[in-house]
């Protein structure tokens, strides 16, 4: 939903009613995760994608119909066949899409959500996608770490759902939750979809070298908020790293410790140490490897790696802490240029995030899309390990 939020809020602020389709559940090899969205504005313009092109035509027609009718629809798109190729997923996946008409009247809190996301304030949107009372469908609850606004239908439901959603928001997860019709924790009848807008995950790149510029570009492309840090002011300049969100002149370990103390590092943070100079990277890695982050990689030759590991052991790091270090950094792609090396680093980060092996898919008989951590269908029994 993040990819359409700016256009969605602008259209609604202008007084228009917009058709919005959001992926709320996926099975098998569906190409987009839960939370992916497509909107159709008042001028008939489509923004976003829910399947990478397989079902967008059918969804466009459905969204237009929902805007005219005003009744939300939960639609399942499945495996295509010869008779319905245009509305099927050629990848063999299945996805559920909730389609609703969004306006000032149906979602008065939308502008605040857009403002919070733009400002990096954590916020989650809860939408009722199933309920025995049709009047509940499409109602929204906006949840912040310290409270909520809007209503799903009753105070009991609002409090029960908001309490659960705060945990999902802290983890940045999108998922579906099931409750009884009035928010009862034991029971079924009401299903809600939660989309969490956590602040961008961070990528910290240490070492203002040409490889760092390429890694910063990859990080920005993948959606990270990128910081480049180096103690040498002559190299750490915005002119050399125009894509970075910030360029910091400071000793790397001091900067990282200050960010940790300020609470600006979380388990989604990735750290790329490109200095390959012991006076910089050893103190930095002492700090990084003792904290919970998504990835710590360090550049250097095998000889540099062995020397670095010895120094880190002398500094008191345990084998468990050292096992978190990816060094030499990146996957074995045969990379030579800074740009190729940056791709290998990005590939390793992605592989560790989703559990990939970094092997050629053409040599493997497994599903392409790994189960996303944000997908509410993770435990669903519908699985086809041979799906392409």
Automatic annotation (TrEMBL):
Cited Pfam families: XdhC_C (PF13478), XdhC_CoxI (PF02625)
Positions of the XdhC Rossmann domain: 203-349
Domain XdhC- CoxI stretches: 12-78, 118-180
Source organism: Arthrobacter livingstonensis
PANTHER family, per the entry: ALDEHYDE OXIDOREDUCTASE MOLYBDENUM COFACTOR ASSEMBLY PROTEIN (PTHR30388), MOLYBDENUM COFACTOR INSERTION CHAPERONE PAOD (PTHR30388:SF4)
Name of the featured protein: XshC-Cox1 family protein
InterPro entries linked to this entry: MoCofactor_Util/Proc, XdhC_CoxI, XdhC_Rossmann_dom
């Amino acid at each position: 939903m993040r990819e359409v939020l700016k256009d969605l809020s602008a259209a609604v602020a202008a007084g228009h009613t917009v058709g919005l389709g959001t992926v709320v559940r996926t099975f098998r090899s569906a190409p987009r995760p839960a939370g992916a969205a497509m909107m159709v504005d008042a001028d008939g313009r489509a923004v976003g994608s829910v399947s990478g092109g397989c079902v967008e035509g059918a969804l466009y027609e459905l969204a237009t119909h929902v805007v005219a009718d005003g009744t939300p629809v939960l639609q399942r798109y499945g495996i295509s066949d010869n008779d319905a190729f245009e509305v099927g997923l050629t990848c063999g996946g299945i996805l559920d899409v909730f389609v609703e008409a969004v306006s000032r009247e149906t979602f008065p809190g939308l502008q605040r959500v857009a403002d919070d996301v733009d400002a990096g304030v954590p916020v989650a949107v809860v939408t009722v996608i199933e309920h025995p009372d049709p009047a509940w469908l499409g109602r929204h609850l906006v949840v912040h770490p310290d409270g909520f606004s809007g209503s799903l239908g009753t105070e009991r439901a609002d409090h029960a759902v908001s309490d659960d959603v705060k945990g999902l928001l802290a983890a940045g997860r999108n998922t579906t939750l099931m409750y009884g019709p009035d928010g009862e924790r034991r029971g079924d009848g009401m299903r809600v979809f939660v989309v969490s807008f956590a602040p961008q995950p961070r990528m910290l790149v240490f070492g203002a070298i040409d490889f760092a510029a390429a890694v910063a570009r990859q990080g920005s492309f993948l959606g990270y908020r990128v910081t480049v840090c180096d103690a040498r002011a002559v190299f750490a300049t915005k002119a050399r790293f125009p894509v970075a969100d910030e360029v910091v002149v400071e000793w790397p370990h001091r900067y990282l410790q200050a960010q940790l103390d300020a609470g600006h590092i979380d388990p989604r943070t990735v750290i790329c140490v490109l200095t390959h100079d012991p006076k910089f990277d050893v103190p930095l890695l002492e700090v990084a490897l003792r904290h919970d982050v998504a990835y710590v990689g360090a550049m250097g030759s095998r000889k540099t790696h062995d020397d670095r590991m010895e120094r880190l052991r002398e500094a008191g790091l345990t084998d468990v802490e050292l096992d978190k270090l990816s060094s030499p950094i990146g996957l074995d792609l045969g990379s030579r240029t800074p740009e190729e090396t940056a791709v290998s680093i990005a590939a390793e980060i992605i592989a560790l995030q989703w559990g990939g092996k970094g092997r050629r898919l053409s040599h493997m008989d497994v599903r392409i899309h790994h189960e996303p951590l944000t997908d509410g269908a993770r435990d669903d029994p519908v699985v086809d390990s041979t799906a392409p």
